Amino acid sequence: MRIACVFNPFKYKLHEENLRVVQRYFGLFPPLSMAWVCAIAERAGHDALLIDARTLRLTKEDVLDRLKAWKPDILGFMMTTYMFRETLEWVQFLKKNLKVPVIIGGYNLRVYPQESVSVEGPDFGCFNSAYHTLPSLFKELEGQRRFHDVPGLIYKENGRIEMTPYGEDPNFDDYPNPARHLLPNDLYAEFTTERKNFTVMVTSKGCPNSCLFCEAGHTSYNPRSPETVLKEIKECYTRYKIREIDFFDYDFCIDRKRVEAICDGMIKSQIDISWACRTRVDLVDETLLRKMKAAGCSRIYFGIESGIQEILDRLHKSISLQQIRNTIEATKGVGIKALGFFLVGSPGETQETFSKTVKFAKSLNLDYVQFSKLTAKPLTPYWRQMVKDTGSDYWREYILGNIEEKPLPRPWTTLTNEEIDYLTKKAYIMYHCRPMFLLHHTLKVKSWSEFKRKFFAFIEMIIRQENISTIDKNFIAYPENKSKILSYKQNYK
Ligand code: B12
Ligand code: SF4
After folding, report:
1. Which residues are within 8 A (CB) of 220 and not within 5 positions of it... i.e. 6 or more apart?
2. Ligand nearest to the CA of 278
3. Which residues contact 399 (CB under 8 A, 6 or more apart)?
4. What ligand is nearest to the CA atom of residue 219?
5. Contact 476/9 with Cβ under 8 angstroms?
6. How far apart are CA 65 and CA 84, in angstroms?
7. CATH class for domain 1-17+29-167+395-409+446-493?
8. Domain-wise residue ranges, the chain
9. Ligand 1 closest atom vs CA 378
10. How far is the CA of 14 from the centre of ligand 1 (A)?
């Protein structure tokens, strides 16, 4: 079988947790989920093509031309809840013109499996991992078409939506490495990137904690072993000339022994890679941070969320302001950049509590901050509360096309959505418009492209970010290297 996966460009959405400018400068990342899917297909002996239409700025027509030449037997798409309708437009357009079946997968299928497949376009849905589902589906498509035998599949039969059981989650360690050979690895960058080539890696799934705003809470932890992680790092280094990696695990440091072993392996192999990861302030200490630094760790993203202890407690974050301060000091002390994620509009948030949070962020002297609007994301306790309070499920209605995108209600705070948007923008401006901060960070910039990216983001935040987020029909993710993108594009024609 020949599977072609397409990663489509997506615009800013009014129900998003970040401001438009933040979203624009977030970065261009490899479509990792589909790179796993392609690797799973290839390992089972099939051909795979992965088109990153977002990064390459390809239109639907460009992709159609490419696919007509490649002749896939099946198309694959990854669905998130927030971008579902946009990806669906691509599904419908390509399916109409190519007349091949479509399989969709991704996080949204965990939340709304049947609904996702019930709309016009998709033929099959994979509601868990592609690991067992895809090879088994291909076997049936080539043979008897007994879809009820395929694990973890949703399909349409006689006007009904059928769903098969999935069984045990596979061990994440048994996955092949994502098929990065199908991607333009030199085009990727994120806002904070310092070196090229850049990629993201996911080395574990799940998180045992229970923060009320997060969909990862209470999901089973499924890590890849240090040996497997090190093999993937080495593959990135030698085969794809990767020099910077962002580990996108929900929490890279849940298992301290595993982190230590990964760091030891990197130190031993003297691999010249800078890396970043996300973790909680209560999971690292100076000893571990020193080892991480020696292994090439250059940035850590910490979930700080608020500068008010009461709010942290209401969010079930289970950390203290003192722990935050100690860990940030220790991180900076060993020479790793510290980055902080904050929430705006938490339960009990007022203009005063938020001003205190911004003041707290400044006092920590973080190298980078991200202020996100607390949003009732699917599968979170706040989502359950929103469904109960409003009597309807916004996300379900949105993916079914019954409702237009809009900012979501936040019954847990007296702040209005307009106030939350405004406070978020103000926080970014207040945090960054400090002469010493600007000077210090300009001096630390390592390349012209890093300088341009950060400079434009700063200017756009001040002059182009509206006080209340609006739809932007011309929205496009900031392109890191336009001429390189154009030369890739030529190859597609
Ligand atoms: C890397 C990443 C990205 C990258 C790459 C996109 C991607 N998913 O490949 C970037 C940065 C571009 C990205 C963008 C976005 N992301 Co993202 N991303 C992730 C992240 C951290 C890792 C994905 C991953 O590789 N996981 C490991 C693999 C093995 O698991 P998996 O992704 O679930 O994939 C398996 C199955 O789901 C299934 N599968 C997945 N896709 C497909 C497709 C087919 C055809 C088949 C058959 C099967 C299949 O098989 C895969 C292999 O077993 C996840 C969180 C996480 N830790 O999983 C968030 C996550 C998927 N992203 C999320 C979000 C919100 C977004 C954005 C909307 C953010 C934004 N505002 O811009 C965009 C939307 C992009 C879009 N087009 O819709 C949410 C989705 C929540 C939801 N309800 O849908 C997640 C869960 C993070 C979170 N907790 O909020 N993301
Ligand atoms: S915010 Fe972080 S620690 Fe809390 S549940 Fe989510 S991933 Fe886990």
Report:
1. 169, 205, 206
2. 2
3. 81, 84, 85, 108, 112, 115, 116, 119
4. 2
5. yes
6. 24
7. alpha beta
8. 1-17+29-167+395-409+446-493, 195-375
9. 83
10. 19
Nearest to 189 by CA among 242, 250, 236: 242
Among the listed residues 237, 354, 374, 238, the one whose alpha carbon sits nearest the alpha carbon of residue 303: 374
**Contact call for residues 221 and 254 (beta carbons, < 8 A):** yes
Pocket of ligand 2 contains residue 206 by CB under 6 Å: no
Q: Mean pLDDT score of the chain, rounded to an integer? A: 96
pLDDT value at position 486?
87
Q: Are 398 and 15 in contact (CB under 8 A)?
A: yes
pLDDT tens sequence across 453-480: 999 999 999 999 999 999 998 999 998 8
Which is more confident, 167 or 156?
156
Cα 76 from Cα 148, distance rounded (Å) = 20
As a dihedral over the C-alpha atoms of residue 138, residue 143, residue 146, residue 147, rounded to 10 degrees, the angle is: 20
The whole-angstrom separation of Cα 425 and Cα 419 is 10
In angstroms, the CA 301 to CA 251 distance is 10
Which conformational region is residue 348 in: left (phi greater than 0), alpha (psi within -120 to 50 degrees), or beta?
A: left
Our answer on whether the CB atom of 212 is closer than 6 Å to any ligand 2 atom is no
* pLDDT value at 493 more than 70: no
Q: How far away, in angstroms, is 377 Cα from ligand 1 center?
A: 14
Query: Partners of 7 in the beta sheet?
Result: 52
- The beta-strand segments (E) located in 209-333 are 219-223, 244-247, 274-279, 297-305
pTM for the whole structure: 0.97
Q: Which of 247, 250, 253, 370 to mutate to test the pocket of ligand 2 (most atoms within 8 A of CB)?
A: 250
CA–CA separation, 227 vs 201, rounded Å? 14
- As a whole number, mean pLDDT of residues 159-187 equals 96
Contacts of 463 (CB under 8 A, 6+ apart): none
Peptide bond connecting 8 to the previous residue in cis, omega within 30 degrees of 0: no
Residue for token pair 């800013």: 12
pLDDT exceeds cutoff 90 at 112: yes
Model pLDDT, residue 48: 98
**Tens digits of residue pLDDT in 267-309:** 999 999 999 999 999 999 999 999 999 999 999 999 999 999 9
Q: What is the pLDDT of residues 202-212, one digit of tens each?
A: 999 999 999 99
CATH class name, domain 195-375? alpha beta
